[in-house]
Structure formats: structure tokens, C-alpha cells
């Protein structure tokens, strides 16, 4: 009678060890030194970047002055050649601007202070 109990005890210990080792292995799949809030911020930044790529920049004002032309988007001013929300500003004209992203040209206009 003692042999089955001993066998049961040995099998239980082996099974528990197997469960623990699988759990420990799955925990090591991620970087244990990485701060979870940093990982969440990194994922949030990637999501924001993906959302920005869908929509062209919003222009709130335009200053046409030849090679010194500017647009205002958000709280900043941008010159031709600068990057605005992952779009490259290529041209500024009286009622809007041209942007390029991934080889596609996007025309953003301002009409009566509303962006179209």
C-alpha cells in the first residue's frame, strides 16, 4: 500500500515542477527589466502614429512669402521641406498647401477658416 502513495507523491511533485517551469518560461518571453508603463507608452505611440497617417495635417493659417512661406499646424509653424505629422510639406499657396507621404501628394486647403 505504501508504494502507490509514494508513486502518487513523486508524480505530483513532478507535475507541479512541470507546471512551474512552463509558467517561468512564459514569464521569460518578455523583458523582465522593461517597465510596463514604458511598454504601454510605446504601444500608445505606435497607435497614435498609425492614426496620424490616415489623416492629413490640419492647417490653421498660411503665410505665402516665396521661399520663406509658412503654414501653422497646431501650435507650430512649418517651412517647406519640414515634416508635419509624418507628411512632408512640399508647397505653400494662398489657400492651402501640398504634402507628400509615401509618394502620394495630398492637397490640404483652407476655405473660410475651415479645413477641407
Key terms for this structure?
116 residues, SH3 type barrels, 3-stranded antiparallel sheet, 2 helices, rod-shaped
Summarize the structure.
Helix content is 39%, strand content 31%. The protein is α+β, with helices and mostly antiparallel strands and 116 residues long.
Can you walk me through this structure?
It is a single chain. The chain is an alpha+beta fold and 116 residues long. It folds into two domains: 2-50; 57-115, SH3 type barrels (Roll), CATH 2.30.30. 39% of the residues lie in helices and 31% in strands. The protein has helices at 2-27, 36-54, and strands at residues 61-63, 70-73, 76-79, 83-84, 87-93, 96-101, 104-111, 114-115. Strand 1 and strand 2 form a beta hairpin. The relative contact order is 0.10. The mean pLDDT is 76.
Amino acid at each position: 500500500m505504501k508504494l502507490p502513495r509514494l508513486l502518487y507523491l513523486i508524480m505530483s511533485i513532478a507535475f507541479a515542477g512541470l507546471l512551474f517551469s512552463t509558467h517561468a518560461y512564459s514569464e521569460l518571453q518578455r523583458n523582465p527589466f522593461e517597465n510596463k508603463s514604458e511598454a504601454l507608452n510605446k504601444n500608445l505611440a505606435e497607435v497614435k502614429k498609425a492614426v496620424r497617417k490616415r489623416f492629413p495635417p490640419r492647417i490653421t493659417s498660411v503665410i505665402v512669402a516665396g521661399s520663406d512661406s509658412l503654414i501653422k499646424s497646431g501650435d507650430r509653424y512649418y517651412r517647406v521641406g519640414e515634416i508635419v505629422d509624418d507628411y512632408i510639406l512640399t508647397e505653400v499657396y494662398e489657400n492651402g498647401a501640398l504634402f507628400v507621404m509615401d509618394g502620394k501628394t495630398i492637397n490640404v486647403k483652407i476655405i473660410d477658416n475651415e479645413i477641407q
